[in-house]
């Protein structure tokens, strides 16, 4: 099945109004005509997950570009007395198209469980937003040979109770924790093996949804390594942290995901 490649940047807690202006203009100016055309034709999707205070700025700058903008998290609650939380409905108010949930930095620092991630994901689906569900194992699990079991359990817990249509609307980002921000990417073959495992797990719930779900790789993706990753049959794009803060580097990663730049999946 042909899935539309997707490349998302995760700015994390970086940026300022002024710096974002330069980064967004730089990104728009660095996209190749080929990538720009592919995005506008719907053959390629790319975008940025920005800190919530900058969603209005991202919406203003990106609205006519075809690029997507989204948030890095979303509340599991609908509305009310939840100080500091941001609801899916609010994200929709800023015309976000997606939000990350379950990033390992939130699972670790804010002790988010897979059950909570599943409830956040549900809020996004209820509001017509695309959830990008992050999963990935710590180094200890990889070294013990239990990385696949660990990730499958995260996928299972986050997708519990979803119907076929909801499942097909998900994006999953496989981000081994030991590869995030370390400069040490998973090899393309190790990443492919895990992506195939994730797709197989999804197929236990629905064969057709498993074929539709896009599975992104994340963890020290650079322009130099992107093409090899994107050539793998189950790697449908990337979630990019550090390298998305450099407009040229990020545009080059997007270029590598252009359908004409890679062998067809
Ligand atoms: C991330 O935080 O989602 C990420 C993949 O970061 P980096 O690309 O910097 O490893």
Would you spell out the secondary-structure blueprint of this structure?
Elements: E1 6-10, H1 17-30, H2 33-41, E2 45-49, H3 55-62, E3 68-71, H4 88-93, E4 98-101, H5 104-109, H6 114-126, E5 130-135, H7 139-144, H8 147-159, H9 164-168, E6 171-174, H10 188-203, H11 207-212, E7 214-218, H12 223-230, E8 237-240, H13 247-256
Parallel strand pairs: 1-2, 1-8, 2-3, 3-4, 4-5, 5-6, 6-7, 7-8
Helix pairs in contact: 1-3, 1-13, 6-8, 8-10, 12-13
The site of phosphoenolpyruvate (PEP) has 13 residues, from strand 8.
Fold and architecture overview:
By secondary structure, this protein is of the alpha/beta class. The chain has 13 helices and eight strands. Strands 1-2-3-4-5-6-7-8 form an eight-stranded parallel barrel, surrounded by six helices. β7 (214-218), α12 (223-230) and β8 (237-240) form a beta-alpha-beta unit. α6 crosses α8 and α12 runs parallel beside α13. It is globular. The termini are close together.
* Mean pLDDT metric: 96
CATH architecture group name: Alpha-Beta Barrel
Radius of gyration over all CA atoms, rounded: 17 Å
CATH fold-level topology: TIM Barrel
Enumerate the distinct ligands: phosphoenolpyruvate
Distance between the termini: 7 Å
- In total, the number of strands is 8
Which superfamily, in CATH terms, is the homologous superfamily?
Aldolase class I
The main pleated sheet reads as:
8 strands, parallel, barrel
Tally of individual helices: 13
Helix content: 40-55%
Compressed to H and E, one letter per element, the order equals EHHEHEHEHHEHHHEHHEHEH
Count of separate structural domains: 1
